Amino acid sequence: MTARILKLSAGYGVLLGVIVSAAMTFADWKLNPSGLFHNEHGTQWAIVAETAVSWLLPVSLVACLTIAIVLYSAGKIRNS
Questions:
Q1: What are the strands, taking DSSP E only, across 2-52?
Q2: Structurally, how many domains does the chain consist of?
Q3: How far apart are the first and last CA of the chain?
Q4: What is the pTM of this model?
Q5: Residue 36: phi, psi to the nearest 5?
């Protein structure tokens, strides 16, 4: 794979990971199952951060790999 494909897939994969992570963390915070994310004493930032990271890492990894495979395959098809 070329360096350009790796850079593009890493950038877009992390961007997609951040977007999905932010959306899902906000949804969980808003839903607030069992008062886990916030209560009368305020927001539990450790739980919020743990949720954000637990979405960010796997989504970014899968998105990076998927984008890299698609870009590499598209380049192979175009060059043949």
A1: 38-39, 42-43
A2: 1
A3: 16
A4: 0.86
A5: -70, -40
